[in-house]
Amino acid sequence: MAEPTETKTDLVSEIPECPHCGKPMPLCICDSVTPVKSRIQLLILIHPQEQDRALGTARLLARHFENAVVRIGLSWPSLAKALGRPVPDPSRWAVLYLGSAKVEDLETDAEIVAINRKGELEPHQRAILSDIEGIVLLDGTWSQAKALWWRNAWMLKCQRVILGPKQPSRYGKLRREPRRDGLSTIEAAAILLAGLEKRPDIATTLTDSFERMLAKFREVQAKMLELAPKPKKRDFRRRRR
Questions:
Q1: Which residue of 26, 28, 127, 199 is 20 to 30 Å from 91, comparing CA positions?
Q2: Are 181 and 102 in contact (CB under 8 A)?
Q3: SS3 of 237, please?
Q4: What are phi and psi of 142, to 5 degrees?
């Protein structure tokens, strides 16, 4: 009697993963990560059902920053609890907002825009953005990231920001984003940190790291098809345009 054929899931589970970036070892690029010093702290909240180990970027992003905080879960009672330290003024923390507001619909060509609860441009953009001391990034699929937003009411105390990237995500055909302005977590962080700190070198470092990750994936995936991410189900709840 023939032995049962191993499934793709079985094969993937046998591949050890990096304890730092969480990727299967053949896809790990931790040995080439360049440390970055930043005055703005990162808090990365990962939805517990985010399963894209191969192409996810949250943990890779955190590897660049000594003080980056990564949390996996659905909700926390406050920004302070999520960070693990007191936060005197949550309004000086920005949240990359996932609502319907888009930079292309506003009267600005800026790449980073602060908005109010109505999705309108905040007055005094320069003063607001220069006062930001931390950024909250929500990692997961579009629907997972929105679930994180709705389950954490404390984010209402933070400053909402949206991005108007000048270029589409470097994922290309590897991973389709639900919106034209959709980016990977590491690409969003590159724009935010480089823009807020006036340091293009941060964007260069993070973008180079992302490019190496994608190149490694393409190289390895051609030989190990079991590492290809599962195709995502179409979200029919999203309004068609």
A1: 199
A2: yes
A3: coil
A4: -55, -45
Q: Give the number of residues written for the chain.
A: 241
Strand order in the sheet with 134-139: 69-72, 41-46, 134-139, 93-96, 159-163, 112-115
Secondary structure string (H, E, C) spanning 193-236: HHHHHCCHHHHHHHHHHHHHHHHHHHHHHCCCHHHCCCCCCCCC
Q: Give the amino acid at 45.
A: L
